[in-house]
Design goal:
Layout lengths: L1 H26 L66 E6 L14 H8 L9 H15 L3 E5 L8 H16 L4 E4 L11 E4 L2 E4 L5 H7 L1 H5 L4 E2 L6 E6 L2 E6 L16 H17 L2 E6 L19 H10 L4 E4 L6 E4 L14 E4 L9 E7 L5 E7 L2 H7 L5 H4 L1 H18 L7 H20 L5 H4 L3 H10 L3 H12 L6 E4 L2 H6 L1
Helix pairs in contact: 3-4, 3-9, 11-12, 12-14, 12-15
Length: 504
């Protein structure tokens, strides 16, 4: 009897479970496995910008706190992990103008006296006295060219002065008003800079700089408000340029708790980058990343505080998703370098190509023109700002501006020669000038990214005297570095479609 009773109870329990649970299952209300912190968002090709939802979008409600929850550190898959088959689609023809290191300085911050001249004499050739005129000439060229966007890769101001940021934002507003989007990111000079300065008389006086939040607010209309996604822990953002091109604007700067010269990509930003790249890769979108600091070691001369600290991780991630190109500034030297796996790598093997823009404020005051073609190839070349043409057009009477190529060439040569004399003070007087002139002329070519004939330049008497009197020295090593870095022209590049490269 007891056995029959037990069987009856088990039968009733099973029947009860069917009655209660099955309807819930059919209704889809059963508990599901918790999702991970990072979700893969797939964007249909026909989706509009307004409807796109990206991971890490962090816009809290007014009643919410912004304290991030504790999360378990996540590891980014390495380059050996297969991201799947890439999608190759016809691209929307895209034209960009890319400039860097404008180092804007308001005329209201100086009387162009002794303190200002000391700034210039100890600098690297910035034509700060005519910064406003150079920018006006450049802005007119941008408006006339009608690119799909103007990209500025940091160091917008000379030393992060708040007034300089505010005035420069006003300059950018004119370009935006013409219908051309302007996208900016900060450089190491721009935020929490303890050297924000004004120059009057004999004295330099420290003035107010900006915080990260203030930077974002000042430049809200130049990328930040239009972005479809923002990194959770930096001023990085994603901007959709058109249906086949995304701009990945990366904040590589260190400004918290204090400003530093070199850069890094924060952990949360790195995870966010991969999400953006994944989504683009799945849809055949070309992603163009832009940062202030460099992705690779591009200079034998400037080897400290230029390359992103965790650049290896970022480079591997970008190449994993077949990113064609990377744009940066900071170096003040026009450079182009394709990443290779090692010496002897065939040219047809894929590797990301980095373009470093020379400072717009340093002669020859050049900027980059980029064209993305329908087949996914990229063309890039530099162009000098036509300050003389602008001056003539507007009836300017200043001879320096009317003859700007000659003036700026002599200007940077004079600045560099004066500094060089300090290192060769004990050299016979009849040889100092030739040595200083050799260094200055080489410096000009190097900064402009011009190709240099190593053998021919080492035959010049200026080089021979440097070798005789100053080898070894820091300055001679710099000469050798500039010569060896410049065996190719760094002002032009043709970048193939990476997808077609790996398939051929």
């Amino acid at each position: 009897m007891k056995r029959r009773l037990l069987c009856l109870l088990l039968l009733l329990f099973a029947l009860f479970a069917v009655i209660i649970v099955v309807p819930r299952a059919l209704d889809g209300t059963l508990p599901t496995k918790p999702s991970s912190d990072i979700t893969e968002t797939v964007i249909p090709p026909t989706e509009t910008m307004e409807n796109i939802v990206f991971p890490y979008e962090t816009v809290p409600r007014e009643d919410e706190t912004t304290t991030p929850p504790e999360t378990t550190p996540q590891v980014i898959p390495g380059p050996s992990d297969d991201p799947g088959e890439p999608v190759d689609r016809v691209k929307v023809v895209t034209d960009l103008i890319i400039a860097s290191d404008t180092h804007y300085m308001s005329p209201n911050l100086t009387d162009y006296g002794k303190a200002f001249n000391e700034l210039i004499d100890n600098g690297d050739g910035k034509v700060v006295r005519y910064m406003v005129e150079i920018w006006e000439a450049f802005a007119e060229e941008v408006i006339a060219a009608r690119p799909d966007a103007l990209i500025l890769s940091g160091d917008l101001t000379i030393n992060g002065e708040k007034i300089n940021h505010q005035e420069f934002a006003g300059c950018l507003a004119r370009i935006e008003a013409s219908g051309i989007p302007v996208l900016v990111i900060p450089g190491n000079h721009d935020i929490n800079n303890p050297y924000a300065t004004k120059y009057f008389g004999d004295a330099q006086s420290f003035i107010e700089t900006v915080t990260p939040d203030e930077f974002r607010a000042i430049y809200a209309d130049f990328g930040y408000n239009e972005a479809v996604s923002h990194a959770p822990d930096s001023l990085s953002y994603l901007y959709i340029l058109n249906e086949t091109t995304w701009m990945l604007m990366l904040d590589s700067c260190i400004y918290d708790p204090e400003n530093e010269v070199d850069g890094e990509i924060k952990e949360g930003t790195m995870l966010w980058i991969e999400q953006c790249l994944k989504e683009a890769y799945a849809q055949g979108i070309t992603v163009i990343p832009v940062a202030h600091h460099n992705l690779q070691e591009l200079s034998r001369v400037y080897v400290e505080e230029c390359v992103i600290r965790n650049h290896d991780e970022l480079l591997a991630l970008l190449e994993k998703y077949l990113t064609p190109a990377f744009f940066s500034g900071h170096l003040h030297v026009q450079r182009i370098l394709k990443h290779t796996k090692g010496p002897g790598t065939p040219a047809e093997v894929y590797g990301i190509t980095e373009m470093v823009s020379n400072a717009l404020i340093i002669p020859p005051c050049q900027y980059g023109r980029l064209s993305l073609h329908e087949d996914g190839t990229i063309s890039y070349h530099t162009k000098n700002t036509d300050v003389s043409g602008w001056a003539a057009k507007h009836g300017v009477q200043n001879e320096a501006l009317l003859n700007f190529p000659q003036f700026s060439d002599e200007y940077i040569r004079d600045v560099v020669m004066k500094q060089t004399y300090k290192y060769i003070k004990y050299i016979p007087d009849d040889r100092k000038e030739r040595m200083a002139a050799f260094y200055a002329d080489l410096y000009k070519d190097y900064y402009a990214g011009r190709q240099i004939d190593y053998k021919e330049r080492t035959k010049e008497i200026g080089y021979i005297w440097w070798d005789n009197y100053m080898n070894p020295s820091v300055q001679f090593r710099q000469i050798e570095g500039m010569l060896k870095d410049s065996v190719v022209n760094n002002n032009n590049a043709e970048i193939p479609n990476p997808i077609r490269q790996i398939r051929e």
